[in-house]
Amino acid sequence: MTSTKPHKQCSDATFRLSVYEAGHTITAYLLNQKIVAVRMLPRPPMTIAEKKFISNSWESFMDILENRALELFGGQIAEEMLCGNTTCCSGDISRIDEISRILAGLSVNEDYDNEDILFSLEDRAIAMFAPEHVRNAILPVAKYLYDQDEAGEIEVSGKEVTKIIEQYIPRPPKEKGGLLSLLRLG
């Protein structure tokens, strides 16, 4: 997963944050989330999916948690791919761990503990970035976010970021299930 030669701007903290945010945003896109905005803060983008729990079902709640964990992994994966290591926003691992513990607690399948869930989510996130066209989208998205931040924009239009991503990655088909197929609630 590590890049052979880190991008020349990786010593710039704002650029690293931009790469990290690009990873979160690309992951959300790959999960078919409608990206409302990207905040230039160490957290995933605002998406329409955050409103999915309105249905008050545990499955939709677990789906939201799973997607959030994947988005959190996406930032670290993008940073490692482009910069050779991860230094930005290290708190995401503790957030992913917490989400994994919640998912394990909600599961009736006792064969999966929180670490099984965490590693399964990590493997899925890494697989999302395996295709070359996905990796090729990281730098253009990061550069756009970096330029917006340099211009004083802390909240960047999700529509504009999505347009950049779509130049590299076609909209993925809708996928259902994920971990939910393993962690069925009774």
UniProtKB/TrEMBL annotation:
Signal peptide: none annotated. Gene3D superfamilies: Peptidase M41. InterPro entries: Peptidase_M41-like. GO terms for molecular function: ATP binding; ATP-dependent peptidase activity; metalloendopeptidase activity. GO terms for biological process: proteolysis. This is Peptidase M41 domain-containing protein. It comes from Magnetovibrio blakemorei.
